[in-house]
Design a protein that fits this description.
Blueprint (H helix, E strand, L loop, with lengths): L8 E6 L5 H17 L5 E6 L10 H9 L21 E5 L2 H10 L8 E3 H4 L14 H22 L8
Parallel strand pairs: 1-2, 1-3, 3-4
């Protein structure tokens, strides 16, 4: 099991790194800086499958901007095991992405790779708004904001389910 006190890097991973993972990354950074003034983690957004680099989904970017989180020059990147050290926490946005990562990379295990929602003790995975109306992206933002608050508590020594 990863020792949360030693975590230096958090990698949020979804399928293509254009919607949920970058939203989670930016919300987490924003909340943490608002609360603590400095961010003690290297926080990254990656995709399980990224054939070519793309900007963030326009609706996701618009929802973030509507909540005063501005993202500059984001480009998706594929997950690389070279970015994982023993002090890295890998948080998949859903079970399917976690399964893909564990299957593809022997360096990833149940000890360092988790489904984000379950890791923080939530019962439901974060909905994927991709292709839906902007209201669905807004709902995703609100859910991720609560999840990121729970992650902050967990990282500070709170409890959570680690399925």
């Amino acid at each position: 099991m990863i020792n949360l006190a030693n975590v230096k890097r958090i990698i949020f991973v979804d399928m293509h790194a254009v919607t949920r993972a970058p939203m989670a990354t930016e919300i987490f950074k924003n909340l943490f800086i608002d609360e603590k003034a400095t961010l003690p983690y290297d926080v990254l957004s990656r995709g399980a499958f990224v054939n070519f680099s793309e900007p963030m989904n326009q609706k996701a970017e618009a929802v973030l901007a509507g909540n005063e989180i501005y993202v500059k020059e984001y480009q998706s990147k594929e997950f690389s095991v070279e970015e994982v050290t023993r002090d890295t926490l890998v948080l998949a946005l859903d079970q399917k992405v976690k399964d893909i990562l564990l299957e593809r990379y022997e360096e990833l295990t149940e000890d360092n790779t988790f489904v984000l929602a379950y890791f923080v003790g939530e019962e439901l995975e974060t909905l994927d708004p991709y292709g839906g109306p902007i209201v669905k992206y807004g709902l995703c933002y609100e859910a991720l904001k609560e999840t990121m608050k729970n992650l902050m508590v967990k990282m500070e020594g709170g409890e959570g389910d680690e399925r």
